[in-house]
Amino acid sequence: MNASGKWLFLISVIAGMAVWGAFAVFKTEPWDVPLGWLVLAGLGLIFGFLGKGNPILWPLGIFLGEVLFGLGSLVKSVFFYSGGGVNFFFPLGLMFLVPFTIPAFVGSFVGFGLRKATKARG
User: Per-residue pLDDT for the chain (122 aa), expressed as one digit of tens each?
Assistant: First the structure.
């Protein structure tokens, strides 16, 4: 992977974290609303279109960002207890993240296919 691919992977990790952060502002989780699924598919599409490497990398970066956000939430609930209780659902949430990231995989492969199709035309 070249330097631009590494930067794009880092941006995909940050995007995965940002999805959860944005929905946390509205006190909901992305998998509870259809918009969350669409956002992940859209992110996958964008990264699949922009990425020059394997289209599997970008959804994995999004997944890693989601896991890191969940881990941060767990650490916050353990060490900075704010009356809401400790988040013991982190392992269960990790299991739900796997199917929740499928739209990002689909979007990434569609974006990769679109990139190849536009490159073949031009």
Answer: 788 889 999 999 999 999 999 998 988 888 888 899 999 999 999 999 999 888 999 999 999 999 999 898 888 877 877 666 667 788 888 888 889 999 999 999 999 999 999 988 86
| H helices present in the chain, as ranges | 3-25, 34-50, 57-79, 90-100, 102-121
pTM of the predicted protein model:
0.88
Neighbour count for residue 111 (Cβ, 10 Å): 23
Sign of the torsion angle spanned by Cα atoms 39, 95, 10, 109: negative
3-class DSSP state for residue 53? coil
Give the residue carrying structure tokens 């990769």. 112
DSSP at 33: S
Residue (of 62, 54, 50, 51) closest to 17 by Cα position: 62
CA-CA distance, 61 to 6, in Å (whole number)? 10
DSSP 84: S
